[in-house]
Write a structure and sequence with these properties.
This protein has helices at about 10-25, 45-65, 80-90, 95-105, 120-130, 155-170, 190-195, 200-215; strands at about 1-5, 30-35, 70-75, 95, 110-115, 135-140, 175-180, 200. The protein has about 240 residues and is an alpha/beta fold. The longest helix has 20 residues, at about 45-65. The two termini are about 30 Å apart. The structure holds 1-(2,5-dioxo-2,5-dihydro-1H-imidazol-4-yl)urea.
């Protein structure tokens, strides 16, 4: 199968990190096709970044559709433009936050989320509510590590991340930890060795969910919410979305 792995921010280094994690997890027969926008914010850490990144992300979904990919992954923990992407795509579209929450809820009764800036906490809380995981999520913690600092994480930042994971486990009762950024996908193995609970990275969780849906022959439902978008004139820089 072909999986389009979209990093919706413009950091090519972050795309490379997640591609390595995805390829290491995917079946040998799965092709991972990386996709990074040319325009937009270098990292996505607030609603403004997310809004600007979303239009470019939808262009990438359309590109993936032209390449006949079998699944699209939106690899940013805010799951930006996920519903819009599902309106556009026929193949499954998987957001890494939703993928990680789903996996965590299968292997733990209460899980914690450890993410980047405190600024992003409401976004994670909002997604937990939207997806209905709030009763099983007992902890949402920030490290205040900026997304781009994850590209070359130093020991001090790594220890900070580990300390917040431990606090989620010991103080908040987390039985599994969801890592709250695609740029943390290369840290999951080390953290798994050093912490006493399962650690879940959304990128690799999304790859395995995409492979499962493909093997089951399941596509995005085109009835109702994820039905085709409403056809209408679009002008200016968005004229390419006109009928
Ligand atoms: C993210 C992420 O995964 N990619 C990005 O640019 N920002 N997540 C986050 N919590 O800040």
């Amino acid at each position: 199968m072909k999986i389009q792995l979209i990093n919706p921010n413009t950091s090519a280094d972050m795309t490379n990190t997640m591609v390595i994690s995805a390829r290491a997890t995917a079946l040998p027969s799965t092709k991972i096709i990386p996709s990074t926008p040319e325009h937009g914010p270098k990292s996505i850490e607030c609603a403004f970044d997310e809004a600007i990144a979303s239009a470019a992300l939808l262009d990438l979904i359309e590109q993936g559709k032209q390449q006949n990919v079998d699944a699209h992954i939106i690899a940013c923990f805010g799951d930006p433009a996920l519903d819009a992407a599902r309106e556009l795509a026929d193949a499954p579209v998987i957001g890494i936050a939703e993928a990680a929450f789903q996996m965590a809820s299968l292997i733990s009764y209460r899980f914690g989320v450890v993410t980047t800036l405190s600024r992003t906490l409401p976004a994670s809380e909002h997604l937990l509510l939207k997806y209905g995981h709030q009763t099983h999520c007992c902890s949402v913690r920030a490290t205040d590590i900026p997304v781009l600092a994850l590209e070359n994480i130093d020991n001090q930042a790594y220890q900070l991340l580990k300390t917040e994971c431990l606090a989620a486990i010991k103080q908040d009762g987390a039985e599994a930890i969801v890592l709250g950024c695609a740029g943390m996908s290369n840290l999951v193995n080390q953290l798994s060795k050093e912490l006493p609970v399962p650690i879940i990275d959304g990128v690799t969780a999304a790859v395995k969910l995409a492979e499962s849906l493909h093997q089951l022959g399941l596509q995005t439902s085109k009835t109702g919410q994820y039905g085709k978008r409403i056809s209408k004139p679009f002008i200016g820089r968005y004229a390419h979305w006109a009928p």
